[in-house]
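Weekly modeling sync, notes
Attendees: AB, CL, MP (scribe)

Item 1: holo prediction request
CL wants a bound-state model with KG4 before deciding which constructs to order. AB pointed out that an apo prediction alone won't tell us much about the pocket. Agreed to run with the ligand included and paste results into these notes for async review.

Input as submitted:
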Amino acid sequence: MSLILGLETSCDETAAAIVEDGRWVLSNVVSSQNDLHEKYRGVVPEIASRAHLERMLPVIDEAMAQAGVSFPSPSREAGGETDARQITAIAVGNRPGLIGSLLVGVSAAKALAWSLGVPIIGVDHIQAHLYAAALVEERSAKSEERGNTPTENRSPLLALHSPILYPALGLVISGGHTSFFAVASPTRMRVIGQTIDDAVGEAYDKAAVILDAGYPGGPKLDALARTGNAQAEQLPRSLLTPESLDFSFSGLKTSLLYKVRGHPVGRGKKTTFQRTAADLTPRRRADLAAAFQQAAIETLVVKIERALGALAAGAEPARSIVIGGGVSANSLLRESIKGLVSRRGIPVLIPAMPFCLDNAAMIAGLAHHHLAEGRADDLALPAMASSSV
Ligand code: KG4
Ligand code: ZN
């Protein structure tokens, strides 16, 4: 049995979670810093790392209390009996992310692992997003027998809480990444396509600024889009060359900018626009948000079908599609996936809502598989700005 405490501080969420055997989430505590960054309409790295410092220990305490587990006593005799409800390892998201933010989680993890005498495992945040769909909230699993594979009732193929079938097609859609992966197992994958400019979450965040939709941009734009009519406005979809598995979202963002503000006059710092979002009627703002959302999500779905074809043509057909990252919380994406499931007859694994955005449960869950493969780190574990996949 593994009972892993995971820590996550790669961006602006301070998070700690306890996960049993890589699957059952006993607690999942996330302290969001939205209030601190709202007035800047984006994450300020220095503010983020200071806030992580203040919040890390209270968040760990809360995760431990909610799960009802304890730390092993450092004075226990080597080889002695370990209480079943004691933490067996510490996992930490150590890459990629804001380096000052990552360092807070990594330092806390090292201090805990060293003082408790338990293994430390560094986890890649992007790989962890691709594992989040396998997690089950202990509370939601209570009514179902553990050991079974509970599936969501709404569709037999759109699976919440199902084990991921490998090999899988993976799609990470977050604030920093929009990437396809050929996924061989929870710990082994390779990139087969990625954005050549903005990540889709980043495009959402910028579109929200353009439309003055509020902060954090992604969920606010999603909510505004639900009140609009996507057919009332035309925005472009960038599919690149017919076979490309790469993405591009900057053209969509710029088209939206010009629709909202009119064509720019002048160049460089002297550029001026004719209007702002405040000059649009509420209906037009909502319609533009809906058209943006339609274009962005349709592009993702078209490309998923393309990537499935590419894997099959390369003699590595996917047995499931696994999606992760903040944009997997998007309402239109979750709806559109159902159409994909019925067209292709392949299971799509999408995380339960608490595991879409940054969280530590996905870190602790994936660490179980690293440990099972005999991979642990030591106190030299570095924080790294880039992903290793
Ligand atoms: O995975 P995540 O929490 O952090 C990163 O690893 O980047 O993803 C955050 C991104 C942000 O860009 C946010 O705007 C976007 O996910 N996001 C959404 C929604 N919820 C979060 N984008 C579209 N619709 C949403 N409902
Ligand atoms: Zn993330």
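Recorded for review: The longest strand covers residues 24-32.
Action items: CL to compare against the apo run; MP to circulate these notes.
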